[in-house]
Structures are given as C-alpha cells and as structure tokens.
Amino acid sequence: MGFFEILALPLAPEEASSMAPEVDRLALFMLLFSAFVSLGIAAAIVYFAIRYRRRPGRAVGAPIEGSTRVELLWIGIPTLIALFMFGWGAQIYVKLATPPPDAMEIYVVAKQWMWRFQHPDGQKEIDELHVPVGRDVVLILATEDVIHSFSVPAFRIKADVVPGRYRTVWFRATRPGVYPLYCAEFCGTSHSAMTGSIVALEPARYQAWQSTGVATGTLASAGEKLFEQLACNTCHRGDTQGRGPVLTGLYGKSVPLRGGGAVIADEAYLRESILAPEAKIVAGFDPIMPVFNGLLGEEQVLQLVAYIRSLGGAPGRNPRPASEAP
Ligand code: CUA
C-alpha cells in the first residue's frame, strides 16, 4: 500500500513495481514540503497585511537595517533542505539506472506507431508485454525511426528511445495486473495511439503463457542465419585466418583499437561496428568491412548482436552498455 493510496488521493497511478514506493515517497515529501512552504508564506502575507496595516499615526514604518543572522538562516536552511532532496533523488536515480544482474532480458523496438517486444526465447509481442511478477526484467530498447519514450506510470519508469543507440531500463513487477504503456514523446500523427499494456502474471501463469506462445526460433538463431545470408562468415571465421576479427568469445571483452585505445565489446559497440564499421577498427585489421547502415533494420541488428553474444564472451558480465544511463 503506497502513501498516496493510504491518503486515498488519486494523485498517482497504482504502485506496481519494486521502485514505485520509493519514487512516491520522494514525490510525497516534495509535495508536502512545497505545500508547507506555500501555505506558510500565504498565511504570513495575510497576517502581516492585517497586523501592520496603515492606521492613523502609524503611516510611516520604522526603518529596518537588516540582520546577518536572519540572512544566514534563510539561505542556509533552504540550501540544506534542497541538498537533502537532491541526495534522495540521486540515490533513486542511480538505482533506476543500474539494472540488477541476472535480470531477464527483453528487446524492445519502437516504431511509428507501435512497440515490438522480443523475448530471448524467440517469442514476439506487439503493444503487449507479458512479464512474471517478482522477477527483475531489463528492457533493451531501440527505435526504428524517430525518438519515442517508453513510459509505464504504474512502474514509475520512463525512458527516451533515441535513434542510433541502445537504451536500457529495468523494473520488477510486484502485483499481477494489466498496466498501461504509453509513448511519452510526440513522435508523429498517431503518437497518441502508440499505447500498449504490460501484463504482469504470477510466475506459474507466466510459464503457462510462455508455453502457449509460438516461438519462431531464438533471436540468436535468427542472427546466425542472417550472419550466413549476409556472408559475414567469409571474413569473420572461427579460426584466426579470416580478414575480420574472430567473434567467438568476443562479447564483453576489451578490444584494442587501431591507432591506440580500447573499447569494451558491448551491445552498443557491436551495433556500431555493424552499421558503421570504420568508426572503431580493431588493431591489426584493415577498414574493409562493408557498411550496413540503411541495409539492416533494428531487429536484424539485434539478431546479429544476440548471435555474437551467443558465441560466448567475458564471464559474468552484465550485458549493459555502460555508457547508457537514463
Ligand atoms: Cu512514439 Cu510518441
């Protein structure tokens, strides 16, 4: 039961995720604090207006010279309160920006005007996402066209999805139910229709739902097929004789770059290396790879990335692009 719900005030949507009560506590504190200050100032204005009104013989007020002590107090106390709220908010922000390890991963592709979800075992959904209650779920979001914003008020999460990069956001549903999903960024004519729902199910019911779905092969297996179709395997071979780097065991490792420096082979780097290979050439190789920008959709890129991930990599690495904070 959340604070807004105890007050029976319909000020906020249902609290249906592990982070929702924390976000609401801060929001409630700021609301009450603002109300206290606003009402206090209003009351003081009324009181002083009456108390010091103009009366016969008191038309001119006494001069006030100011007081350093009072000045210090009204600068110091609000500063401390503001810093307290900042620290509280920053702590929640960091929690929301750090997906827990071992979270279940779901890929999301936004597109005018729909949300496409892909479960790791291959199940696909449009404008509806089924998740188990009590399990950490991390969404890896990409957009096919313009900026969209993935917003689930009941979970207190909102993430802008910007073209050309991956964005992650996580939640843990705490109550079974159907929660509205909105696009919270104006993205064209049918922006307002770009809605959907998150269906949180008890684990047993989730399993039942999962087994009824038609899995059309995993993301990685689709990626493997694509890898062959695009003839990536002629250069990226299993042995070290290929003209491109070996991809086996690459994911999550540090890659030395031509011209110095290194980069972690995370999802963002793999994506960039597929779409714009010349951006960061691996040391010891020539910039000969064709550019796939404009030739592949975001879903196909996700498939290729999933395939490369399936070839193994650094152990226990949380597959998050470290550069992406909400
Ligand atoms: Cu997508 Cu608004």
Question: Quick summary of this structure?
Answer:
With 326 residues, the chain is α+β, with helices and mostly antiparallel strands. It has helices spanning 3-6, 20-51, 68-97, 203-212, 219-229, 267-275, 298-310; strands at 104-111, 114-118, 124-126, 128-132, 136-143, 148-152, 157-161, 167-172, 177-183, 196-201, 254-256, 262-264.
Descriptive tags:
326 residues; five-stranded mixed beta sheet; 7 helices; disordered C terminus; binds dinuclear copper ion
The global form is elongated
- Regions with little confidence, pLDDT below 50 for 5+ residues: 316-326
Class from helix and strand fractions = alpha+beta
Rg, Cα atoms, Å: 27 Å
The largest beta-sheet arranges its strands as 3-2-1-5-8
Q: Report strand %.
A: 15-25%
Intertermini distance: 27 Å
Portion of residues within helices: 25-40%
Number of helices: 7
Tell me how many strands there are: 12
Structural notes for this entry:
The protein is α+β, with helices and mostly antiparallel strands and 326 residues long. It has helices at 3-6, 20-51, 68-97, 203-212, 219-229, 267-275, 298-310; strands spanning 104-111, 114-118, 124-126, 128-132, 136-143, 148-152, 157-161, 167-172, 177-183, 196-201, 254-256, 262-264. Strands 3-2-1-5-8 form a 5-stranded mixed beta sheet, covered by helices on one side. The chain has a 5-stranded mixed beta sheet with strand order 4-10-9-6-7. A hairpin with a 5-residue loop joins strand 2 and strand 3 (124-126). Helix 2 packs antiparallel against helix 3 (68-97) and helix 5 crosses helix 7. The longest helix has 32 residues, at 20-51. The protein is elongated. The protein starts with a helix and ends in a 16-residue tail after the last helix. Residues 316-326 have low confidence and may be disordered. It binds dinuclear copper ion. Dinuclear copper ion (CUA) is lined by residues 113, 148, 183, 185-187, 191, 194.
